[in-house]
């Protein structure tokens, strides 16, 4: 797709002319992330996070592939091979710290990207497919990160694997056989470690594939923008290159600075000390906690402490935890407001910020021990989480009176008078 | 239609949560959680006065201190605790030369497993060997110390606090918690998670080791030295990490300025 005014690729060098005839790859790139892709001119810095997420994926792929050259997926030596990487492999410590903190960075960036989407209504028509693919990427990331955390075969690796695969055991009738089938045994052991390694290597490439679909789907309607008003004329857009390559460059430099500050000066700050203890099936850690990026969902899982009619508490927790993410798939159809951007939705905006605070509270409770008052707080917070998506979003979108929208992006940027000189109304 | 369904789903989860909350809250009110002996007497670990030389982004190991810590480890800790991830050759990083390393290694008998015959023989340690396993005769299993400084909340500060924190159980503990008697064979230490540690106080008196560099071997000094040494065994690349970090961040700061300037240039004539 493109807008009629999108620049066309015109190779000048004979070699590029030759290549363009045989395989129009340069043309493809030019139209995807070059000057051939017209983008709204008013994107703010929250639109950097998509590119940053792609960059994180590349960091994880490159460091991960080199780490895999030195790692051994065997319960007898997995922990020692990780230490071998940290001590004896040239720059192995840097690779591993980049990979471990890279996972955290990836989630920070993706959460920002998702919450950008929540606020600016990026999930709404005609961009539903981009959103659906995005949620799928997030689910794949969670699976990949979980299996990656198991690989060093430390205490949290082992017990995390046990707890998370144990969730499948809560499913009625098929739960227990399913759990045994997934693990290849009654508890995490050699079979589980080996398949987790295999899948941890595979899934990033699946993510890469879905990312390509995500970007493909993005290029059909083009990028959304902070006003939520669709592109109307050429003056609403600028070519992706050089305008957004330059702007993304700023975001990338800031991101890399913060990321490497963590890698070099606080590489273990986000990890758990127990994972420097080799896995021991005979000794359960005092508090089993997943990595921080799972905490909000972990809090929801643990919030269900009482059986609900015939549904056991554990099954309720599992249902709720999965629903908490799966509800995002329904978002384009739950939010029927004709206005995309939260900027022009006064009621929605208040609930949006309440959701942000709510998820932070859930995150805090998910990392805290499973004791009072954290459980009661996470029960209230989880309740708001579900009410927000299942009730507040549909109801607000039906009754809210949005603020008047600007006529066009150009008008929003330049003001009415100047806009008239650039793009006269037809 | 989908919205009716969604509101029902929201109500389902909310009512279930309200039910859980109600049950939890009522038992919280009827039986408020009582303080436990751990919640009252467990202390937060504090490091030695003045901190460690390796703390912070400019931190460096003090090689003299690491060598003293190594001496404490070999003369005291090594009776029970192994150091399997450390090789003798690594000692070069804390200032020993090749001859000294050979001499240190040769004092150890390193087991050697013959995969064909199944025999286990021992040989005199050489530089490439790791510290051999320690056979512990008592009950329980003293943890390997290679990574201990990263495997505990508080790291080296925790080790220091634990080593200097042994004391008789305060009398008021049993008044408040009659069940909190120290189990047989354990020792009271407010820095240990459950307050009762199996390890007897390892560093008991001044002069337990005699330092060659003239440092006064007080219990605090020996504890700080061995804590620093164990930080090195856990994170041997700490110095290199700090030293690499600054140029990388400097470069990225420069890149940030360049990126921002080119952004301003590119967008100069474009209002946005």
From TrEMBL, chain A:
<dbReference type="InterPro" id="IPR048260">
    <property type="entry name" value="Cytochrome_b_C_euk/bac"/>
</dbReference>
<dbReference type="InterPro" id="IPR048259">
    <property type="entry name" value="Cytochrome_b_N_euk/bac"/>
</dbReference>
<keyword id="KW-0472">Membrane</keyword>
<feature type="domain" description="Cytochrome b/b6 N-terminal region profile">
    <location>
        <begin position="15"/>
        <end position="227"/>
    </location>
</feature>
<keyword id="KW-0349">Heme</keyword>
<feature type="transmembrane region" description="Helical">
    <location>
        <begin position="196"/>
        <end position="217"/>
    </location>
</feature>
<comment type="similarity">
    <text>Belongs to the cytochrome b family.</text>
</comment>
<dbReference type="InterPro" id="IPR036150">
    <property type="entry name" value="Cyt_b/b6_C_sf"/>
</dbReference>
<keyword id="KW-1133">Transmembrane helix</keyword>
<keyword id="KW-0479">Metal-binding</keyword>
<feature type="transmembrane region" description="Helical">
    <location>
        <begin position="130"/>
        <end position="151"/>
    </location>
</feature>
<feature type="transmembrane region" description="Helical">
    <location>
        <begin position="377"/>
        <end position="399"/>
    </location>
</feature>
<dbReference type="Pfam" id="PF00032">
    <property type="entry name" value="Cytochrom_B_C"/>
</dbReference>
<comment type="function">
    <text>Component of the ubiquinol-cytochrome c reductase complex (complex III or cytochrome b-c1 complex), which is a respiratory chain that generates an electrochemical potential coupled to ATP synthesis.</text>
</comment>
<dbReference type="InterPro" id="IPR005798">
    <property type="entry name" value="Cyt_b/b6_C"/>
</dbReference>
<keyword id="KW-0679">Respiratory chain</keyword>
<feature type="domain" description="Cytochrome b/b6 C-terminal region profile">
    <location>
        <begin position="230"/>
        <end position="407"/>
    </location>
</feature>
<keyword id="KW-0249">Electron transport</keyword>
<feature type="transmembrane region" description="Helical">
    <location>
        <begin position="351"/>
        <end position="371"/>
    </location>
</feature>
<dbReference type="InterPro" id="IPR005797">
    <property type="entry name" value="Cyt_b/b6_N"/>
</dbReference>
<feature type="transmembrane region" description="Helical">
    <location>
        <begin position="93"/>
        <end position="118"/>
    </location>
</feature>
<dbReference type="InterPro" id="IPR030689">
    <property type="entry name" value="Cytochrome_b"/>
</dbReference>
From TrEMBL, chain B:
<keyword id="KW-0472">Membrane</keyword>
<keyword id="KW-0408">Iron</keyword>
<feature type="transmembrane region" description="Helical">
    <location>
        <begin position="245"/>
        <end position="263"/>
    </location>
</feature>
<dbReference type="InterPro" id="IPR036909">
    <property type="entry name" value="Cyt_c-like_dom_sf"/>
</dbReference>
<keyword id="KW-0349">Heme</keyword>
<dbReference type="InterPro" id="IPR009056">
    <property type="entry name" value="Cyt_c-like_dom"/>
</dbReference>
<feature type="domain" description="Cytochrome c">
    <location>
        <begin position="64"/>
        <end position="234"/>
    </location>
</feature>
<keyword id="KW-0479">Metal-binding</keyword>
<keyword id="KW-1133">Transmembrane helix</keyword>
<dbReference type="Pfam" id="PF02167">
    <property type="entry name" value="Cytochrom_C1"/>
</dbReference>
<keyword id="KW-0812">Transmembrane</keyword>
<dbReference type="InterPro" id="IPR002326">
    <property type="entry name" value="Cyt_c1"/>
</dbReference>
<protein>
    <recommendedName>
        <fullName>Cytochrome c1</fullName>
    </recommendedName>
</protein>
């Amino acid at each position: 797709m493109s807008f009629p005014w999108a620049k066309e690729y015109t190779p000048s060098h004979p070699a590029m002319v030759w290549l363009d005839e045989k395989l129009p790859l340069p043309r493809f790139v030019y139209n995807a992330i070059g000057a051939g892709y017209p983008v709204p001119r008013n994107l703010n810095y929250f639109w950097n996070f998509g590119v940053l997420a792609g960059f994180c994926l590349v960091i994880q792929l490159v460091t991960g592939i080199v780490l895999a050259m030195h790692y051994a997926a065997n319960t007898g030596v997995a922990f020692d091979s990780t230490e071998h990487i940290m001590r004896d492999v040239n720059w192995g410590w840097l690779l591993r710290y980049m990979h471990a903190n890279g996972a955290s960075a990836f989630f920070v960036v993706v959460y920002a990207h998702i919450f950008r989407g929540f606020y600016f209504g990026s999930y709404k028509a005609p961009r539903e497919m981009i959103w659906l693919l995005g949620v799928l990427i997030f689910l794949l990331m969670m699976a990949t990160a979980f299996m990656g955390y198991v690989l060093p075969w430390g205490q949290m690796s082992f017990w995390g694997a046990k707890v998370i695969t144990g969730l499948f055991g809560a499913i009625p009738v098929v739960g227990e056989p399913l759990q045994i089938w997934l693990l290849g045994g009654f508890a995490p052991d050699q079979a589980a470690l080996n398949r987790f390694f295999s899948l941890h290597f595979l899934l990033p490439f699946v993510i890469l594939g879905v990312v390509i679909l995500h970007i493909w789907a993005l290029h059909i309607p083009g990028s959304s923008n902070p006003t939520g008003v669709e592109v109307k004329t050429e003056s609403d857009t600028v070519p992706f290159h050089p305008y957004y390559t330059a702007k993304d460059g700023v975001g990338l430099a800031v991101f890399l600075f913060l990321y490497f500050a963590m890698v070099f000066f606080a590489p273990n700050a986000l990890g758990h000390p127990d994972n420097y203890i080799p896995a021991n099936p005979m000794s359960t850690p005092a508090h089993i906690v997943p990595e921080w990026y799972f905490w909000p969902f972990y809090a929801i899982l643990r919030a269900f402490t009482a059986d609900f009619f015939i549904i056991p508490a554990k099954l309720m927790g599992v249902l709720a935890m999965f629903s908490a993410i799966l509800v995002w798939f329904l978002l384009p159809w739950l939010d029927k407001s004709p206005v995309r951007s939260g900027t022009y939705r006064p009621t929605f905006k208040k609930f949006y910020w309440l959701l942000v605070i709510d998820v932070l509270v859930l995150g805090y409770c998910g990392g805290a021990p499973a004791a009072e008052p954290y459980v009661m707080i996470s029960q209230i917070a989880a309740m708001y989480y579900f009410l927000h998506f299942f009730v507040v979003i549909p109801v607000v979108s039906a009754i809210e009176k949005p603020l008047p929208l600007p006529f066009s992006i150009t008008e929003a940027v330049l003001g009415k008078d100047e806009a008239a000189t650039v793009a006269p109304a037809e | 239609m989908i919205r009716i369904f969604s509101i029902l789903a929201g109500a389902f989860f909310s009512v279930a949560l309200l039910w859980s909350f109600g049950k939890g809250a009522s038992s919280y009110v009827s039986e408020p959680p009582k303080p436990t002996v751990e919640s009252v007497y467990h202390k937060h670990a504090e490091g030695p006065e003045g901190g460690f030389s390796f703390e912070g982004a400019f931190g460096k190991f003090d090689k003299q201190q690491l060598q003293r810590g190594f001496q404490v480890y070999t003369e005291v800790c090594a009776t029970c605790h192994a150091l399997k991830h450390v090789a003798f050759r690594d000692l070069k990083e804390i200032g020993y030369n090749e001859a000294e390393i050979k001499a240190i290694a040769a004092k150890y008998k390193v087991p050697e497993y013959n995969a064909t015959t199944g025999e286990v023989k021992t040989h005199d340690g050489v530089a490439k060997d790791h510290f051999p396993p320690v056979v512990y005769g008592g009950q329980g299993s003293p943890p390997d110390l290679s990574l201990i400084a990263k495997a505990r909340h508080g790291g080296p500060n925790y080790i220091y606090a634990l080593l200097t924190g042994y004391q008789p159980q305060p009398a008021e503990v049993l008044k408040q918690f009659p069940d909190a008697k120290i189990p047989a064979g354990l020792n009271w230490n407010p820095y240990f998670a459950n307050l009762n540690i199996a390890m007897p106080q390892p560093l008991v008196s001044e002069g337990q080791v005699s330092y060659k560099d003239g440092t006064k071997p007080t219990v605090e000094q020996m504890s700080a030295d061995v804590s620093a040494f164990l930080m090195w065994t856990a994170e041997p690349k700490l110095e290199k990490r700090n030293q690499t970090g600054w140029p990388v961040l400097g470069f990225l700061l420069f890149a940030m300025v360049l990126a921002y300037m080119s952004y301003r240039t590119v967008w100069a004539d474009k209002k946005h």
